Amino acid sequence: MKKFGTIIAVTLALVSINSCKTKMTDVNPLLAASENPYGAPAFDKIKNEHYKPAFEAAITEGRAQIDSIVSNTEDPTFANTIEALEYSGRTLSNIGSIFFNLNEAATDSTMQALALEISPLLTEYSNDIMLNEKLFFRIKSVYDLRDSLGLTAEQSRLLEETYKGFVRNGANLTEEEKNKFREINKELSQLGLQFGQNVLAATNKFFIHIQDSAELAGLPAFVKEAGASEAKERSLEGWVFTLQNPSMGPFMQYSENRKLKEQLWKASNTKAFKDEFDNSTIVKRIAELRIQRANLLGFATHADYVLDVNMAKTAGTVNAFLANLLDKTLPYAKTEVAEIQKYANGLGFEGQLMPWDFSLYSEKYKNEKYAVNDELLKPYFKLENVQQAIFALADSLYGLKFTENKKIPVYHPDVVAYEVFDADGKFLSLLYMDFFPRASKRGGAWMTSFRDMYVQNGVEQRPFVSLVCNFTKPTENTPSLLTHYEFTTLLHEFGHALHGMLAQGTYPSLTGTNVSRDFVELPSQIMENWAVKKEFLASFAKHYQTGEAIPDELIEKIVAAKNYLSGYMNVRQLTYGINDMAWHSLTSVPAVDVEAFEKAAIKKTQILPAVDGTSFSVSFSHIFAGGYSAGYYSYKWAEVLEADAFSLFEEKGIFSKEVAGSFRENILSKGNLEDPAELYRKFRGRDPKPEALLEKFGMKK
Prior knowledge:
Layout: H1 2-24, H2 48-70, H3 78-87, H4 90-105, H5 109-130, H6 133-144, H7 153-168, H8 175-205, E1 207-210, H9 221-233, E2 239-242, H10 245-254, H11 258-268, H12 280-296, H13 302-307, H14 315-346, H15 355-370, H16 374-377, H17 383-398, E3 401-404, E4 416-421, E5 427-434, E6 446-451, E7 454-456, E8 459-461, E9 464-468, H18 484-501, H19 522-527, H20 534-537, H21 552-560, H22 566-584, H23 594-601, H24 621-624, H25 634-652, H26 657-668, H27 676-684, H28 692-696
Parallel strand pairs: 5-9
Antiparallel strand pairs: 1-2, 3-4, 4-5, 6-9, 7-8
Helix pairs in contact: 1-2, 2-3, 2-4, 2-5, 5-8, 6-7, 8-12, 14-15, 14-22, 17-18, 26-27
């Protein structure tokens, strides 16, 4: 009777959902089958009022799918339990990908309020699945028989990851512990959203408005033009400079106005700190809740919990890795800073260089030593040319073709959609490219997906990949001209995009970029190497006005300067990684304030004077609002991998189809189908050499 009643309830629920869905499809594009090519999202039809009812309907549908698995009277099998679970909630996943990606790239106050409202519903839904005893019983039943089921390698991987995922999300906890676990996850989801919203609000609030041209001393024409364009957008006279990197970076690099630079630097380093958007309390609360969750699951710290499934495995390994790299690179960094200090003093600068002074004098020194600077290079890096060059590189290496399709709706006028095809003409992916900063977009650059790659019922669903950046905007008179750093950033993010677009496999949780945090940066960071390769630069870099090819001597200067300040930049990255590990290696949150904790954590990395009243932890979105908690080290970890991996390209040729084919086969297409260490060995034929990174930066003695 009980089983029969459950079956009836599930059937009624499914009928109700289908009826509701049919009724809502006329008005809600998030629930209707897309009529766009490849089933692309109907961004042109989606409105804010569609999100909440769509989430509610999709959650109801997802719950019914879980109930049907749990109430199945047949013995648990891989198909009726593990596969059924893997494919459940696809509607919810698609809606969530659209909403939360747009909340990062094209948000408004309504979306931000919705995010805070919807997040608890999703957390509850996730908790109800992960803490469902009957569901876990079925999963464990299949897992316990895994050696006798005759599963394929991919099926075995999915079973292993599913079982492990449930254990790591509280399936083995007592009922009392599960209730505590639910509350922790619910609060963490809210705090992470609030943290990000505070950072965006603080970033948008501050700007410098200049009306006296005398205060523009030192700024090249392209920086002045960008400042004037920003002012015009705000209906202001003069020039405006913001905390967005394309605005702030060049100002700090070239401005002779020390007072304004100090003001801008301090504003950037006090974002969401001791102001109306203060994240200090949120940071400590997030750290505390993460400790509590780790303890519930049997781990001493959040870092131990996170790293248990990464390549590094333990906090001890990561801390030793960071300490060793700091020990090797800090002397170089100190020497570089001392050289800049001496150079600045030689130009008449008095006293010790402060953080807001360093960019100006390091840029001057670079220009004098290598005769190369952004003002000289930018005319050769018109965004459209750079983009086509990267497409051509992907064609040369992997045979990919990119075709713009204006019939595919986009979520903002700045966005352009491309179809991506393989060498044999097979459709591989949609690629959305969104390049310019705006108030509705958070800072930084990232790759994400609106749909993962998977196969269901014999039908392959190809991915929808999005590449989001904040590059120098075009003005009335000048197209978007990238700095060499921005060019390198685009290569980096495009590497992530390749990882998503070239995905192969059956199950969505195992394909594309769904890999361990310290492996996911390998495909992105290896692409950065082409930014300083003469053969690649010479293939596309032309002056945007004259069409003149970039002179060989200028390319040689780019190559010669590739390791300029490499010690300083390495230590800067290590500072972030060490601070991250300090917050997440805690067994209890200390009483000291955020600023004091941060300064103590990074004391050994300090090579420029510390400035009281500042903190970057409160705006460190990677670790407090993103997925990099106890994971920021992965950038340096993956740099070791990519330095070793790229040495094979250098050995066989940077356009080698043989090496590229192996990299695609063993790394880019494999996702999480195998252990990342094994995938790397298949590509390289051995484990990575730790010294490869130091050799790349010319620090190996």
